[in-house]
TrEMBL record:
<comment type="subunit">
    <text>Homohexamer.</text>
</comment>
<comment type="function">
    <text>Acts as a processive, ATP-dependent zinc metallopeptidase for both cytoplasmic and membrane proteins. Plays a role in the quality control of integral membrane proteins.</text>
</comment>
<feature type="binding site">
    <location>
        <begin position="57"/>
        <end position="64"/>
    </location>
    <ligand>
        <name>ATP</name>
    </ligand>
</feature>
<feature type="domain" description="AAA+ ATPase">
    <location>
        <begin position="49"/>
        <end position="188"/>
    </location>
</feature>
<comment type="similarity">
    <text>In the C-terminal section; belongs to the peptidase M41 family.</text>
</comment>
<protein>
    <recommendedName>
        <fullName>ATP-dependent zinc metalloprotease FtsH</fullName>
    </recommendedName>
</protein>
<comment type="similarity">
    <text>Belongs to the AAA ATPase family.</text>
</comment>
Length: 269
């Protein structure tokens, strides 16, 4: 049951308009759409396309969202693997899972492979408890082997996300591997407003609710926090049987979301 012969992929039903703010990151990723749509046009001219793209930024800034939006825009299958899946599995499973995933993605190219939380397997090798032969290391070695195994003709892009680029094994960052880096930042006030507008679009807001004011009062919030804020506010309002969401709900929800964020900080290793 551990070997998966068929990797399943979805073509995400989202586009770049679902990613608010992050203009710089969107611009860089947008260039890849054309290639995924018409790889032959680029191949004919011998153009080299980046293979591995590393999305770097704090938790909840939209790295997964942006990768899915790229697949959605290009209309290609999105194969995903979360590096934390490999914690506490049997030895060898991570490597074979990686092998199967790459094989399936290449077979169905053009396609995208997305590796979430790359830092949880991609930490510098030789630091594991298993004397350098642990599961994590085997999985990492398999990822490196797969990246090196591309001939340059496959129209499969490998995107990976990390919020700890500083701990990554330098081998991952060498030319031909994750050599292209895209930064996602915590949103500024204007970007927070754009994110709030997007997530509040289907929420009936009371007339006193000014999203601009809320954007101003949420410095340090990531996109995921703002999404939570809107959702928690709506839940509070629904519990009260309100017709719409008012400022009081937002205030209470903001305290909850902030407590959640602090909890994360306290318990992070
Ligand atoms: P992590 O590092 O924790 O995996 P991430 O950077 O991959 O986080 P996502 O998982 O993409 O972040 O974000 C979670 C959710 O937060 C998204 O599905 C989306 O609903 C919302 N979100 C995050 N950033 C944005 C954004 N820029 N615009 C709109 N929604 C956003």
């Amino acid at each position: 049951f551990l070997e998966r012969s068929t990797e399943r992929a979805e073509i995400p039903n989202i586009s770049f308009s679902d990613v608010a703010g992050q203009e710089g990151a969107k611009r860089e990723v947008r260039e890849l759409v054309e290639y995924l749509k018409e790889p032959d046009k680029f191949r004919r001219l011998g153009a080299e396309i980046p293979r591995g793209i590393l999305l770097m930024g704090p938790p909840g800034t939209g790295k997964t969202l942006l990768a899915r939006a790229l697949a959605g825009e290009a209309g290609v299958p999105f194969y995903t693997i979360s590096a934390s899946e490999f914690i506490e599995v049997f030895v060898g499973v991570g490597a074979s899972r990686v092998r199967n995933l790459f094989a399936a993605a290449k077979k169905n190219a053009p396609s995208i492979i997305f590796i979430d939380e790359l830092d949880s397997i991609g930490r510098t090798r030789g630091t594991g408890l298993g004397g350098g032969h642990d599961e994590r290391e085997q999985t990492l070695n398999q990822i490196l082997a797969e990246l090196d195994g591309f001939t340059g003709r496959e129209a499969t892009l490998v995107l990976a996300a990390t919020n700890r680029p500083d701990v990554l094994d330098p081998a991952l960052l060498r030319p031909g591997r994750f050599d292209r880096h895209v930064n996602l930042d915590l949103p500024d006030r204007e970007a927070r407003l754009a994110i709030l507008k997007l997530h509040a679009a289907k929420v009936p807001l009371a007339s006193g609710v000014d999203l601009e004011q809320i954007a101003g009062g949420t410095p340090g919030f990531a996109g995921a926090d703002l999404k939570n804020l809107v959702n928690e506010s709506a839940i509070l309002a629904a519990r009260e049987g309100s017709e719409n969401v008012d400022l009081r709900h937002f205030d209470e929800a903001r305290d909850r979301v902030m407590m959640g964020a602090e909890r994360q900080l306290i318990f992070q290793p």
